[in-house]
Design a protein that fits this description.
Helix content is 76%, strand content 0%. By secondary structure, it is an all-alpha fold. The protein starts with a helix and ends in a 5-residue tail after the last helix.
Length: 398
């Protein structure tokens, strides 16, 4: 069946309205909207199959939405973070937490895949890294109602996890043998992208200040996507550029000083940032909506009945939870509610999984395993947010 243009527009607009309602339900019930979107995607797949409707090139569309969504969501999180000297301990703690939990979790998941599916460890670890990354696409929008301290911890950790996950994934794919030279190359790449990021961010800030046209913010976002894509083609961790731009824009007073202040007006930047936040937030909402709907639509329902998928999914989820509990409880020593529970897997996990080169793909590791881990981690986050709400409700009012 071929859908007409008006039928197609009716479906698209209805899905956006439905996603908005899901967001309202999520805020009241603490049920993550990603679960509702994935379920809707599966129902759409069943309906499309019944009416013999086909959607070609769904994986390519998913990758495209995933890349754009990742950029917009990391930018959205960075635009809400304030830098100051008293925030340095929090930044150090979240960076260390994101790095160590990701590496330990990936190593253990890789060991399990190596043992269970009997594949080489390098192949196993490349498939494990995406599952070890916290999804900022799910975590950041879900913690808006938490206290500022808890929200900042989760936003920083999720953003760092995305960046470090991409760095670790590229490192594992590009190095068949790891030696001193591999780490030297990695250090050079990180220093290079950091310097490039600062320069590009200053240019973007200058554009925001000087462009007087009413068409401004989508132009800035387009330039940011262009720079990100060029960096990825050069195998650089260009997500760091997105994070730097958001942080520099939201904390312009720390960076625009002395001579720079002659060329970039702080007062005009403060006025523009509110509009950029709104446009970026609404764009991220639309992209996130269709990404998770399409992922649910693409799931092979027959594979969900495979016992191997259940074993892999539950074991990987258990490893994620165990490592996080031990680290937060005994090393980071941070509150477990809701920090222990808010470590969802989602957009970045799926995006990295689709980026695995053909020679490293494992037949037993498929989208259905990802689906299980995404659903279970989202349900765990829902439990944590509910426990947080109950803890707040139990505090007496004096």
């Amino acid at each position: 069946m071929i859908l007409g243009p008006y039928t197609f527009l009716i479906i698209l607009s209805s899905l956006i309205i439905l996603s908005y309602l899901f967001d309202m339900v999520a805020k009241r019930s603490k049920i993550p909207s990603v679960i509702l979107l994935l379920t809707t995607g599966i129902l759409l797949q069943v309906t499309a199959t019944a009416f013999e409707v086909r959607l070609p090139g769904i994986r390519s569309i998913l990758e495209l939405f995933g890349i754009i969504g990742l950029i917009l969501i990391v930018l959205e999180g960075a635009l809400d973070l304030e830098l100051s000297r008293d925030k340095l301990p929090l930044i150090r703690k979240t960076l260390l937490t994101a790095t160590l939990t990701l590496l330990i979790t990936a190593a253990l998941i890789g060991w399990f895949i190596n043992f269970w599916l009997n594949v080489p460890y390098q192949m196993a670890i490349i498939n494990a890294i995406p599952l070890a990354v916290i999804s900022s696409a799910i975590a950041i929008p879900s913690v808006t109602n938490l206290t500022p301290e808890k929200r900042e911890f989760i936003v920083y950790e999720a953003t760092f996890s995305d960046i470090i996950g991409i760095i670790a994934f590229n490192f594992a794919v590009q190095n068949n043998q790891i030696g001193v030279g591999s780490f030297v190359t990695l250090a050079v790449d990180l220093v290079s992208i950091f310097i490039i990021s600062i320069i590009c961010c200053l240019i973007l800030l200058f554009f925001i200040d000087k462009i007087k046209s009413h068409i401004k913010f989508f132009l800035i976002i387009a330039i940011l996507i262009l720079l990100y894509s060029v960096g990825k083609e050069m195998h650089l961790s260009s997500l760091l550029m997105v994070l730097c731009f958001g942080l520099m824009l939201n904390n312009a007073a720390l960076f625009i000083k002395d001579r720079l202040a002659r060329y970039i007006s702080l007062s005009s930047l403060e006025a523009e940032i509110k509009q950029l936040k709104q446009i970026n937030g609404e764009s991220a909402f639309v992209i996130r909506t269709f990404f998770f709907l399409l992922f649910g639509f693409s799931i092979n329902l027959q594979e969900l009945l495979d016992l191997n998928v259940w074993v892999l999914g539950f074991t990987i989820f258990s490893i994620i939870l165990l490592v996080r509990y031990l680290y937060l409880q005994y090393i980071a020593r941070v509150p477990l509610i809701p920090e222990l529970f808010v470590a969802p897997r989602g957009l970045i996990t799926i995006l990295l999984f689709y980026s695995i080169p053909a020679q490293f793909q494992i037949p037993g590791m498929n989208e259905s395993v990802l689906f299980f881990v995404v659903i279970l981690s989202s349900l765990l986050m829902m439990l944590g947010l509910m426990l947080t709400r109950n803890a707040v409700d139990d505090i007496p009012n004096y």
